[in-house]
Amino acid sequence: MTVVDEEAELARLDAEKYVSLVTFRKNGTGVATPVWTARDGTELLVFSERNAGKVKRIRHTPRVELTACDMLGKKTHGATVTGKARILDDAGSEHARKVIARRYGLLGRVTMLLSRLRGGPQRTVGIAITLSD
Question: Structural domain of residue 82, as residue ranges?
Fold first, then answer.
C-alpha cells in the first residue's frame, strides 16, 4: 500500500462511526466484531475487554481486516483493508482510551467512565492497528 493509499484508507476508516474488526482463530477462521476506532497518527486505536476473544486472537495472529460497518457489524460500504494489530501496554492503553473518548464525544466519555467504574484499566486494553498491503 502506498503512503497516499494508506493515508486515504486511514482517513476513510477514521470517518466511520463503527468499523468491523476481523481477527483470526488459529485455524484461520475470521471473527468479525464491530468496534469504535480513533486515528492516532498512522495507527487506528481500539479498546476492548482484556479477556475478550479478539484480544486472545490478536495475541497469536496479529493480522486483521477492517471494513466500515453499522453498530451491529453489518458491512455498509467501502473496501476491506488488512492490517497488523498489537496489544498495548498500560500507558498505551490509557492513551487509547483518551483518544477514543475524545473522538466519540459525550458518548465516548460516558462509555470510558462506565468502563473505569467496572474495573477500567485492569479490565480493558488498547489495541493499535497499522494498515498493511
Answer: 3-130
